[in-house]
Amino acid sequence: MVIRPIPFDTQDSDAAAPVRPRESEILDSIRQTFAEKGFDGASMQELARAAGMSVGNFYRYFPSKAAMVAAIITRDLEEVGQKFTDVVAAEDPLAALREGLHMRVAEECCGVEDASLWAEITAAAQRKPEIGNVVQHMERGITSYLVEAFALIAGMSRDEAEHRFLPHAAMVVMLVKTTSIQAHGPSAQCKLLRDDLTALVQRLIDMILDEVAAARPKEPK
Length: 221
Fold this sequence. Notes:
Elements lengths: L20 H21 L2 H7 L4 H7 L3 H25 L3 H18 L2 H15 L1 H26 L3 H27 L6 H24 L7
Helix pairs in contact: 1-2, 1-4, 1-6, 4-5, 4-7, 5-8, 5-9, 6-7, 6-8, 7-8, 8-9
GO molecular function: DNA-binding transcription factor activity; transcription cis-regulatory region binding
Organism: Paracoccus alkanivorans
Pfam families: TetR_N
């Protein structure tokens, strides 16, 4: 079973285009600049310089910051989709999903580079509708992946899993998202509190997964 990204629900057809190899290289080179300077703070000139390109040539690949964020999300959703494909192919999908989500929460709390980038993108989404649209697409995509995994874990159809567990999937996305904001915002707490926060969020995710697993029909004795 292969889980594929949902298409962008947007008027901008460019946002749905696959990320080409050269574009992927550029994204790798500018992620650090975005993470350090923020969405508003990073100028197109600085981003072009980080990519080793002239501004004019840079615009040929990414005409706006929103286009860059859409490309980052498109590429990252493909990677997330592969991780969920691995989950559903695992001998114990529930254990694989639990381990993957625990690891993601720990990464968000510990401040890995990508976590700070996503914190910046999330903040920008509150101010820029065009960024908000692509971030919402990302969240819908991950929620859809979770529902697919829940259907397998609970032994039910995709439609039934969506009906019963869509709020559970949305809550998992919300927990990971708010953990990132908390860990990278101006009120980021000391390491001890971050460790406690990590453990608490992981326990909340366990509760959600246990409730999904409990819906599986009991094997006849």
